[in-house]
Amino acid sequence: MLTDDALDERYGRTRSRRRWNRRIALIAAGAGVFVVASWVVWGGLDGASTAVDSQNTAYKILSDRQVSMTWQVTLTPGTHGKCALQAQNTVHATVGWKIVDVPASDQRTQSFTGTINTTDRAVTGLIYRCWLT
Prior knowledge:
Layout: H1 4-10, H2 15-46, E1 53-63, E2 66-74, E3 81-88, E4 94-102, E5 109-117, E6 124-132
Antiparallel strand pairs: 1-2, 2-5, 3-4, 3-6
């Protein structure tokens, strides 16, 4: 008849094996903690950057080839940005596109009006996105 020690050895459940498994588990846990801590630090440093917020306030179809847009951009005073504007037709295809500069200002929110030339009759004018430069 086999003893418990003999069975453990036969099926690979030795003391040295248990120590090795525990060591691997501790190393894996340490690596996991390192990854999470690195991610938190990276996210915290990146979170200090300023954000840009934009909002459409109005648009007017001027002709079959032009759309006038009014929009607001909110960003930290003293920072520059750019906005991509688009005009879309009835099937939501982009028929006009323009990138405009947002100059630095001492005001947090600025209002702009611009005209987009189009290749087809547009039914709306939208802000695609804004970013810092």
